[in-house]
Amino acid sequence: MPNPRGLGNRSVPARKPAGAYEPQVLSPTSTEDSLPGGEAATPPGVSALEPKTRPEKEPLNTRVLVSTSQRLEWFTKEHGYTVTNVVDVALQEFLARKGVPDVDTLREIVARAGGPELAD
Asked: Which domain of life is it from (predicted)?
């Protein structure tokens, strides 16, 4: 029976081309990084990669004018950006123009040299 995308037959398993990488089956006592014989489980010619790290984000809920929402939706569709990224860049630019200091690696506000401290 063909799948919804019209690609192949669901009842027939796909065959890998000759010479394609076949992962080794690990025993319950081995680790993910090594095979029972001490060999690396990484495919030949591929280095172990660090996992992708994304910047930490937190939710921000707000209400905007309908016209602003419509403009944002148009922009994201027209240019292929996400709402999250557009809002983040817009807020960063706005805060920079207003002279709000950056945050350091310890998540502390970094007062600019010679600039006034922000009042709580």
From this structure: Bacteria
pTM as predicted:
0.48
The pair of three-digit structure tokens given for residue 55, joined into one six-digit string: 């910047």
Give the tokens for residue 87. Answer: 């809002």
Query: How many C-beta neighbours within 10 Å does residue 32 have?
Result: 6
In Å, what is the CA distance from 120 to each residue of 9, 40, 41, 109, 117?
64, 54, 53, 12, 9
For residues 60 and 36, which has the higher predicted lDDT (pLDDT)? 60
Domain boundaries, the chain: 58-113
Q: What are the phi and psi torsion angles at 71 (to 5°)?
A: -65, -40
Report the pLDDT value the prediction gives residue 30, as an integer from 0 to 100.
46
CATH fold group of domain 58-113: Arc Repressor Mutant (1.10.1220)
Contacts of 43 (CB under 8 A, 6+ apart): 21, 23
Give the number of other Cβ atoms within 10 Å of residue 99's Cβ.
Answer: 10
